[in-house]
């Protein structure tokens, strides 16, 4: 559960994220029923904390942004019902947004500094216009790669809320592949960050994983093959690994530990190569020199590094949010809702959750 207060679609006044990782960790993945229950318990305190931290009350809020989809229906319904209730009682318009297309909005956000807050109160007292967009924000059109636990999608954004999907994963999302391979390696859930850490000590050329689709004429992705190759590689390491089927593989025993770093580095490099190649190719083919990379996997240090190198080589301006804005947060939802609200979008009380939401708002 996350909530944030954002001013002018740009300045983050507060951003509160209540992670559920500790709850789902022992199950090796998200348990939907536990997730929605936890959302129910945390929605009020998290929103209250966001308001308190921003030093505002609901009376200062002009619009409420809320995730309409995609995701787990129970969790979405908690947020959506809460947003509708507050909207109705306080007469504040609400906007339902697509979680995936909200991720790139993080690059338009920055934390509000004290001096900006003073300037804002001066601006209001003089009735001046709101500040212009961030000088460091990408220019439209831009290519956006959203890499998260549930999605790997390449977009062309023509404007806020006006985008086209160029490609997406045909099986596992990149984050899902990280998490599954981490589980096979006995590293727990979610495992992306642990693989990232181990990979720093490993040799990325130690194991030659095929880069799926890299040479193919498509912007779609596929990561389940790399995951299976990792499984076979682990099994091939011999007697130490007690496998009971793909998903029940026991944690790697200690004798394997030295090679875990190489496995992490080689697997990570294969995934990163595909992501970098597809994103840069999309920029070149569409003659677009602004690229946004976001979503939880964009926290990955090697992905950030390689994207930076390849973007520079190809004259592309790269925008990657700071890690706290790459992984799920309320500020990106608020930022996107602000832009849609400016275009006149307003949710109605009969809005339903869209767990499989695709290319909409
Ligand atoms: O965007 P996000 O916070 O939530 C979803 O919308 O899914 O992404 C979570 C995903 C998880 O799969 C997690 O393992 C992955 O992001 N992740 C990473 C790293 N940090 C988080 N993957 C690779 N390297 C990281 N450093
Ligand atoms: Zn996400």
- Tell me the domain tally: 2
- What's the β-strand tally? 10
Provide the residue-averaged pLDDT.
Answer: 88
Instruction: Tally the helices.
Output: 12
CATH class of the largest domain: Alpha Beta
Tell me the CATH architecture of the largest domain. Answer: 2-Layer Sandwich
Series of H and E elements: EEHHEHEHEHEEEHHHHEHEHH
Strand order of the largest sheet: 8-7-6-9-10
CATH topology type of the largest domain: Nucleotidyltransferase, domain 5
Q: What ligands are attached or bound here?
A: 5'-O-[(R)-(carboxyoxy)(hydroxy)phosphoryl]adenosine, zinc ion
Q: By CATH's scheme, which homologous superfamily of the largest domain applies?
A: ATPase, nucleotide binding domain
Rg from Cα: 21 Å
Largest sheet geometry: 5 strands, mixed
- Which consecutive residue ranges, at least 5 long each, have pLDDT under 50? 239-249
What does this entry show, briefly?
The protein has 361 residues and is α/β, with parallel strands linked by helices.
What report would you give on this structure?
By secondary structure, this protein is α/β, with parallel strands linked by helices. The chain folds into two domains: 125 residues, ATPase, nucleotide binding domain (Nucleotidyltransferase, domain 5, 2-Layer Sandwich); 179 residues, ATPase, nucleotide binding domain (Nucleotidyltransferase, domain 5, 2-Layer Sandwich), CATH 3.30.420.40. 42% of the residues lie in helices and 15% in strands. It has twelve helices and ten strands. The strands form three sheets. The protein has a five-stranded mixed beta sheet with strand order 8-7-6-9-10, covered by helices on one side. Strand 3, helix 3 and strand 4 form a beta-alpha-beta unit. Helix 6 runs parallel beside helix 8, helix 7 crosses helix 9 and helix 9 runs parallel beside helix 10.
């Amino acid at each position: 559960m996350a909530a944030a207060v954002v001013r002018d679609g740009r300045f983050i006044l507060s951003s509160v994220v209540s992670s559920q990782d500790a709850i789902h960790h022992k199950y090796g993945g998200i348990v939907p029923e536990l997730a929605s229950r936890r959302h129910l318990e945390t929605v009020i305190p998290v929103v209250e904390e966001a308001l308190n931290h921003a030093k505002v009350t609901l009376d200062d809020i002009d619009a409420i942004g809320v995730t309409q989809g995609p995701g787990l229906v129970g969790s979405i319904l908690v947020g959506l019902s809460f947003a509708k209730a507050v909207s109705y009682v306080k007469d504040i318009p609400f906007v339902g947004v697509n979680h995936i297309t909200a991720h790139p909005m993080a690059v338009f956000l920055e934390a509000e500094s004290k001096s900006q807050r003073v300037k804002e109160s001066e601006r209001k007292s003089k009735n001046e216009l709101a500040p212009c967009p961030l000088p460091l924000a990408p220019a439209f059109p831009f290519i956006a790669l959203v890499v998260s636990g549930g999605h790997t999608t390449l977009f062309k954004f023509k404007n806020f809320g006006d985008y086209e999907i160029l490609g997406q994963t045909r099986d596992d999302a990149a984050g899902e592949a990280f998490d599954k391979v981490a589980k096979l390696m006995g590293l727990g859930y979610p495992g992306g960050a642990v693989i990232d850490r181990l990979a720093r000590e490993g040799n990325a050329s130690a194991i030659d994983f095929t880069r799926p689709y890299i040479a193919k004429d498509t912007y779609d992705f596929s990561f389940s093959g790399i995951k299976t190759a990792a499984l076979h590689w682990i099994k091939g390491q011999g007697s130490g690994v007690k496998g009971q089927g793909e998903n029940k593989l026991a944690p790697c025993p200690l004798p394997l530990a030295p090679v875990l770093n190489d496995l992490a580095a080689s697997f990570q490099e294969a995934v990163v190569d595909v992501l970098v190649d597809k994103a840069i190719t999309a920029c070149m083919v569409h003659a677009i020199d602004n690229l946004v990379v976001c979503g939880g996997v964009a926290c990955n240090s090697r992905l950030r590094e390689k994207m930076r190198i390849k973007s520079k080589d190809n004259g592309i301006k790269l925008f990657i949010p700071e890690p706290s804005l790459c992984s799920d947060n309320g500020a990106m939802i608020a930022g996107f809702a602000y832009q849609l609200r400016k275009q006149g979008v307003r949710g109605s009380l009969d809005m339903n959750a869209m767990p499989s939401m695709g290319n909409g708002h």
